[in-house]
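FORM 7B - TANDEM STRUCTURE REPORT

SECTION 1: FIRST PROTEIN
SEQUENCE AND TOKENS:
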Amino acid sequence: MKSKMTDQTKSMQHEEPADVLDMHIYRIEKLPKRNKTNLEKWLTYIGPPLAIISFVLFAYVLKLPFLLNIDPSHLTEEARQVFDKIGLEAFSRINAIMLGIFVAGIILWITESLPNYLTSLILIVTLVLTGVLPEKKAYAELGNTVMWLNIMSFVLASMLVATGVAKRFALWFILKFGKNAGTIFLSFIFINIVLSAFISATTAKAAILLPIFMVIAAIYGARGGEHRNNFGRSVVLQNLFYINIGASGFLTGSGANLLAAALIGGAIGGRVFFSDWMMAMFPIMISIMLLGYLLAMKVFFPLAPSERLPQIEGGMDRLRSEYAKLGKVSFLEKKAVVIFLLILGFWATDKLHGVSPTAVAFVGAIIALLPRVGVVKWNDVDIPWHLMLFSAGAYALGAGFAATDFPSISVNVFFDSIGIGNETPFWVLYLLLTGVMVFSALLFESKTMRAMIFVPIAIGVAGRFNLSIISLALPVAFMIEHVYVFPFNSKPAALLYETDHYSISDSFKFGITMMLISWLLIILAGETWFKVLGITPNGVFGIF
């Protein structure tokens, strides 16, 4: 009997829900479990043994020469303190173990042999048991300020769903722009730009927009799994792309941007201001988003004629009827909107009041949850705790890299091995550092981790070659947000992959193309727009 019920449940996973306009069916824990392809199943089998073998080889068997002759004068202050305490031999051994842990983690994340959160838990305890990190530091990453910002933002996003604000907005959105499928996607560009200017958490933006574009996808006949279509692929992947690229246009677009600016400001003895960042990146952000829209609609996921019209029974008349049923905006909806707008306002004006985005989100979530005052109950809050654990593992890896300074050690060895000397032209370094930054997103889960690793490397390279720190470190920081190719590259990518509207091959072919185009645009900007702004020196490539 039990097996029969299980089979029935599986067969119903992708059937049309009772009401595609009911946003509660798009809660994260209710998203259907993806059916793996034969290739994905094969990768899950080879992942664990390959990860174990790789860990043992890099950590204990291979004696990499560059780890045996580490110069402490090139280490960061934190890593130098560890070096002075334990000595060269032990420090080299810890770096080798760190490399082994990182390679094994990447293999498990790519193959999805284990759930991502379980891989993160394994990484955290391995960092502790091998002595790379002390327990207190490794476990403390679960309390990272960005983690709390995301948790509180999910509370606020759930508030919009529970009160009906999100459904009202989705129906209004379709009725306003849904006559032409193309205008829906362009409208999402605008929405993402507005949200990016206020919200310093891409995961929060994904949580806010997820039920909206899931309803829109369902209206246009896309319900995931066996019912995938190009509208569904496009609306989810384009939003994933816009969520991240929209954040690249603003200093406050993500916590990683703020961290990168703080690192650069500390190195130059000044500050990178909101206006500086936006002046440089806003036009590039718009260009990248529009190119992504055109390529998605015309090349990767062109819509069939049937996909350009609403597929819901009753068509637009049904939607008008549903919108009319909502009636006037309720008191609870008004309270939710006021709370949400106040949060956005405080996020946008942090320079004036000095309260951190995390503290602002805390206050907003508390007000939203307060009995008799708030607008949402805890049982209505939709927090993906598995993604939080997933992130904690990535942050712990970043802490491990900071303690060992492995990335900087590797880069210095790389420069020495390919013969890059002090006379190396600026454009070679610019190409190399921006390229490494953007394509490193294929291997890393955390933008914060990449900011912690590669921005200091760019600062160090600028110092090594006696160049302006801004000229290398700021363009590198501008490439932080390219985390949309694989599901493990970022929390929004992991979250939206669970909708089962697209495959890894769909996201890879679209994502890797946009990565390459974005890199080419940042190279072009280095010779033109950034030069006008004084970020890069005159004559970067000697063309003008």
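SECTION 2: SECOND PROTEIN
SEQUENCE AND TOKENS:
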Amino acid sequence: MNKVICDRLAALRAKMAANGIDYYLMPTSDYHNSEYAADFFKVREFFCGFTGSNGTLVVSKDWAGMWTDGRYFIQAEREMEGTGVTLFKMGEEGVPTISEYLEKNMETGEVLGFDGKVVPAAEGLSYEKKLSKKKIKIRYDKDLAMEVWTDRPALPCNPIYVLSDELCGKSFEEKLSDVRKVMDENNASAYLLCKLDDICWLTNLRGNDVECNPVILSYLFVTKKNVVLFVQIEELNDEVRKYLEAKNIEIMPYNRIISWLDEYEYEGITLYDERNVSYQVYRTVADNAKNVGATVKNILDPTEMLKACKNEVELKNIREVYIKDSAVLTKFIYWVKQAAGKEDLNEYTAAMHLDAMRAELPGFIELSFPTISAYKDNAAMMHYEATEEANAKIKPEGFLLVDSGATYMGGTTDVTRTIVLGPLTDEEKKHYTLTTVGMLQLANAKFLEGCCGKNVDILARIPLWNIGIDYKCGTGHGIGYMLNVHEGPHSIRWRSRSVEDEAPLKEGMIVSDEPGVYIEGKHGIRIENIIEVVKEFKNSDGQFLGFRHLTYVPLDLDAIDTKYLQPKDIEAINEYHKAVYEKIEPLIEESEIKAWLKEATRPIQ
């Protein structure tokens, strides 16, 4: 039994009883529905022990359940062992959603509680609708974790900095004009923006309030004449203050958002995005607007699509950054192949070595996510993270999967390579070869303008589907410009989770291409390139689009079994490796690495 977690849950249940709450819900989220939550917001982890980046914990007086997706099934089972918390595997046959479970198990008139600041409006509204038949009451004004977690970390508070218009390719005023055009199209008088990377993109500001995401805890309220930015005042220096003053952006304290929205004089239509506005903020705006005869309108944040299609300056910088980043990873692959089996080499020390190599590149800001360095069967957990205390020793055999990236002045990177360190099984070679085929098959696709990721996902999966294997995640995600490593609205996956997954692929979008194989207890394989959506040719059938590689890192020919390849697959591997050598070789000074690179990118027959 995990006594620490059990004691915490007992303390939480006591607070629930004292406040008349029958079920209490805790998502993985900050006040802005960010993907990565700072330590202050890791409430779910505190009460169940699961450390993954996605999951929701629900607790009643005598039961607790945790919902997460396929990336984390193995990890969640391991980390929650002995806690008494039941794992619900989202998307699996027969597994209810949270709202379905609550509807079935809550008694008429009971109370569902959660901190309304961390539950997105869309989620809160879905509970309202689903549970209304049983007259379930919702209390969203109680952060019970604050009453139990006595040594809770402080809210992040770090300096803000300004990016030049030259680096961003577009000024704040130009971006604001585009947003106000959308407001005009919707006959709106105001727009509330709560998504952190969108706020940073629009204002050309950056910060460090979320691990690995250069963003600022903030809200932005835009009217036809004014812009109000809510930030922690302590994060401002003289340069940022002067910039905001010059841009006519009014500053308000971050913790004033609710009281300010209570006092605002609403008129006409206020736009918001229920995916990114918290339930408490939504209720504040919607209820106050209704009281004075004004209205609110839910739309997809227009900043998402504007941000997703990179401008020419951003694209130029991104291409250059990816070449430099690819050269660093190439050098690391050479290094780790030589170092495998040495006494002090393990998953963690390998990750630290790569992180240090990236940090030496000019313009390095921070990692874009914690480096995943997973040896052999640990790689079957998609988001495994080795630590200094818990890691596997790396031997000269099998696979090492390394998923890594960084944010630099000029771009944000993400790349995965599965590296051969020694003898492989025939099954490992088969799985690696077919993963390679899928990655290149998607990267070389041509498709009509208007297609979304769902239309092309099959190209990456079909080599694995043909042998009865699937990976429990999407094939691709968007990537920000000096922003979040995961960005929408576009993605590549075979089925939609929500409306944003239907976003068309457009010229200038950046997206990952990362099929994989994950066999519990055996091995994990992922090969990830980042690709840019480009225009190809236009004819009587329409405008065709395609992809251009941004990642140029060798595939591991020691894991390629040519009996699983068609002539077109061999051609695709050889063409890609020819480009890798041409782009990376000039950036490598060491003669021994040059020689290795030439051999690693040799044509195969």
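SECTION 3: OBSERVATIONS ON SECOND PROTEIN
Residues 197 and 555 are 32 Å apart (CA to CA).
The two ends are 56 Å apart (CA to CA).

SECTION 4: SIGNATURE
Preparer initials: ____
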